[in-house]
Amino acid sequence: AGSSSGGTAFPFQMEREPQLDALFRVLYNLCRCRGCKTVVKFFPHEVSDLEPTLMVLQCQDRDDFDSWESRYSLLLWLSMLCLVPFDIYTIDSTVGATNPGLG
Questions:
Q1: pLDDT, tens digit (0-9, with 9 covering 90-100), for 19-58
Q2: For residues 92 and 58, what is the distance between their CA atoms, to the nearest angstrom?
Q3: Would you state the pLDDT for residue 30?
Q4: C-alpha 3 chain-centroid distance
Q5: Residue 85 pLDDT class (50, 70, 90 cuts)
Q6: Is 99 helix (H, G, I), strand (E, B) or coil?
Q7: Average pLDDT along the chain
Q8: Residues with Cβ within 8 Å of residue 18, at least 6 apart in sequence
Q9: In terms of Cα–Cα distance, which of 66, 73, 83 is closest to 18?
């Protein structure tokens, strides 16, 4: 009566990519062996990476518990990207398209 089968996935959800999941699984194992602080130093930390990382994180299926390493690695990368100081207009791709006079 109270179960809802729809609405649990994000509207951007894509199909699961096995190569990407395998890469994130390797990253998680590196974090487990060497530590998160050591591994996160090698992640790219450009402001332009923030929006694609967020989009890939939003594409993850919340009900897929087998790919939790993907969400772990993406959240780790996103937590590092949030520490970089930036202007909001440099990452929002919709602002430049709708208001070219800003900036």
A1: 988 999 999 999 999 999 999 999 888 888 888 888 888 8
A2: 16
A3: 96
A4: 28
A5: confident
A6: coil
A7: 79
A8: none
A9: 66
Q: What is the dihedral of CA 31, 35, 38, 43, to 10 degrees?
A: 30
Token pair of 74 as six digits: 């993406």
Dist CA 47 CA 84 (whole Å): 7
d(CA 34, CA 39): 7
Within a 10 A sphere around the Cβ of 17, how many other Cβ atoms?
Answer: 14
The Cα–Cα gap between 28 and 6 comes to 30
CA distances from residue 62 to 10, 23, 32, 72, 97 in whole angstroms, order as listed: 8, 19, 23, 12, 31
Structure tokens, 3: 């179960």
Determine the pLDDT at residue 73: 94
- Give the number of other Cβ atoms within 10 Å of residue 20's Cβ: 15
User: SS3 for 102?
Assistant: coil
Structure-block tokens of residue 23: 């890469």
Q: Return the pLDDT at 23.
A: 93
